[in-house]
Design goal:
Blueprint lengths: L2 H7 L5 H11 L5 H17 L9
Helix pairs in contact: 1-2, 2-3
């Protein structure tokens, strides 16, 4: 598990922050794990309440 996964799952990182971090780290990550992270973030965005803000 990478730092993005750990921090996101502990709710210490918003989806926006996680996507930004992914963009910075993507060159150092395995392609399969990049796909897993992208899917995790997409799922979280789908589940997110539309009234919540992503400023966390």
């Amino acid at each position: 598990m990478c730092l993005i996964c750990i921090e996101f799952e502990k709710q210490r990182m918003s989806t926006g922050e996680a996507r930004r971090a992914l963009g910075e780290m993507i060159g150092d990550m395995e392609p399969d794990h990049v796909q897993e992270v992208e899917e995790m973030l997409a799922d979280a965005e789908e589940d997110k309440d539309p009234d919540d803000s992503d400023n966390a």
